[in-house]
Structures
1.
Amino acid sequence: MKIPFEPSRSFCYHFARYEAIPEILERPEVAGGEPFRLIDISKLIIDEHLSPAQQATMLKKAHSDREDSVVQIVKFFIPYIARRTEQLIPLGNGMFRLPTESDISDEELDDAAVEEEDADADEFDGSVYAFSFPALVKDAAPFPIKIGMTTGSVEDRVERQCKASATFDNPLILRQWKVARVGAVESAIHNVLRSRGKWRENIPGAEWFDTTVDEIESIIKFISS
């Protein structure tokens, strides 16, 4: 899938997801199932498709004076999307491998299908959830909240995520919402909060936003109305 270059963060996301990652997965050193250094293969793919001038193009972050180059943004999105869609398993120190059957449960297969954003996946019902940790919670101001989705048990999903992240506090599930087309709803919430400059992009993990439960709920109500 050839994506025409345009100087935008949206291009960087779509290039990473629909062009770079599929090509990475087809590389012999990846397809064989052995561990590999993702950044090295990512650089090869990026260099094949984007000229030095395109890679060096600077993009301003919304609601901020910060600028990042196209290559920096693409290099961020590739591992972020690969982990989030569970197409690759992180091993630490920049190393990844393909998932095996033992890595993926039936529920996670459903969640992965939802992530694919095709017509069938959009039909999955499930739960959007918001959780944080007690030390981060504030009563009357935004604070870091992870917003995710699952087609199964929210409690099991959050527990599994926190175990994988080696956290040192018990997560606090703030609220969960049963919705139709859960993948599309979750994506819409993320996009609205990103447009408001609330995405915490430079932290371990993904899907964290400086927001409130009321703000999340208002977005869900708007989407569902």
2.
Amino acid sequence: MARPRRPAPPEADQPPRIVGGTLRGRRLAHRPGGPTRPMKDRVRETLFDLIGDRVRGAIAIDLFAGTGALGFEAISRGAARAIFAERHFPTAAVLRQSARELGVEDRSEVRAGDVLNWARRLPDLPGDARWIVFVSPPWAMFPGRSADLMALVATLLTAAPDGSVVVVESDEAFDPAVLPGPESWESRAVAPAVLHVYGRLVS
């Protein structure tokens, strides 16, 4: 008698994988049960379809980086380098482990600390290439620290080089009307998330 198959573990408990580009299929270092909430594969794939070729040669800035799935996906798809900002120091160490294991240490920089402080004093960031900025915080921050998040987004929009793209990932309860310059954003629902992109989407 065949043994019944065990149900697959939830996606959040599995090491995230890169879904496209030169590193496609590679898994990232991951701490099951840790504080991170990796973006679901289908949401991430949709996001990079929306960005299109603008990722090539850009500087990816992965805020609230967690596993770094967005920044490493950007490198895989042609970004020149990625900067990861993560306030949880053990998680920042896991990001560095992923960079080593993927062989992209020379294109990765991990900055440990509270990224919300960037709204008051933006750190030194490369200005010689356009940015692809990913703002994917814990969803509880949207009702709890909305003003701080929007101040961060506004600071980034002001500082970003021409041609940059800023992406905010939220849950469905978030009201995009509170985004800075709300008329300049386009939103796409990819359950359970909603992607808000500052800049023209690929049609």
3.
Amino acid sequence: MESPSQALIELLGVVAYGELAGFFRIAADAELAPSMAESIRMAELADIEFRHYSLISAHISSFGVEPEEAMAPFAAAFDGYHERTKPADWFEGLVKAYVGDSIATDFNLEIATLLPEDSRAVILKTADSTSHIEFAVSTLMSGFALDSRLRGRLALWARRLVGEAIAQAQYLAAEHEGLFQLINGTANSSAVGEESNEVPGLDLGRAFIRLTEKHTHRMQRLGLAV
């Protein structure tokens, strides 16, 4: 197998650590659950995140690269994001799962279009966040029915989360050369293993507009102002 480029390994590394950090975060949030049943449900969601990480980790290993090595440059950024957005209670944790994981999935779908077929297929396998979304929505709606003041507080929390998430994505794209080249279309064909001489980039401005529009639709589903 041809040696992978810096761009491809960086992209796989950032997605892999995002899934691993998501696993740690959801597992920790399970402790905030008000009942054993809800705690178990959160643990099941954490397991989904870990299985996603395992898929990407195995793909990185198939290139002869240690997954830990690929993920290491991104650990501080993700850990900082999760520290800054640590939920204060069960409902904030649910909103973070709903908003944060959905934005991460949307971003992964955007960047998957830049990858060769085998890597794209792996990323797409991790893009199913239906379990996260439906569980979070149903539980949050039940909470709103019991406490009308909850909507306002969580709307502000969701706004903060999306701002932090997009700022982090912009930072990662700007600070890592391989990601920057791949996203902006300045990587050559060898960067991602394509046969053609040109690798189309991602219009980052339009991509973030699409991410924001999808976030708005998710908030509207919950009846939260954005």
4.
Amino acid sequence: MKIWFATNNAHKKAELEAILDTSLKIPSDEGLDFDPEETGTTFCENALLKARELKKILKDDGPVIADDSGLCVDALGGRPGIFSARYGEDGGRKLSYNDKNLLLLDELKDCAQRSARFVCAMVLLFENDRFFIVQETLEGEIVKGRESLRGEGGFGYDPVFLIPSLGRTLAELSAEEKNSLSHRGKAGKHIAKILKNNFGR
């Protein structure tokens, strides 16, 4: 059985395959044009939108997984939130994640409040109106400044996200450590149980 993942992000694909312990297909694997406009106002809405959009263009009836995730920083009123992937890209300019991390730190400056969380909403869609959705978080803090950016692992905002209990950023964790505690890891474990109950995987 093919399980589809509604993303073209190879990092996310590899991470979720490890969490689910199964192989996934993404649109770019099959040369499919998949770039839905994320018009939802919540992580859950965007995840469901992406799952439904991919289901619409697929020629098989396999299940579709989609997620929407982002970084919510308390001192910024929850920003960048659902706009995490497009943070700082007003006016059509493209930024690398290193640029976004530096922009985030510059925006926070010396603010004492550094609390933040990663949020992941994940959908397992069987049919348009038959789906499961879960949302999980990972609590942490934003590092103090540019000199505190650490780690070569992970991707995205991982180098600026500190796990206080470990004294390390997400980018300093091994893939196994990250998957055991991350927002996507937690959500993926719920989805794995649902898949097992439906398909004995």
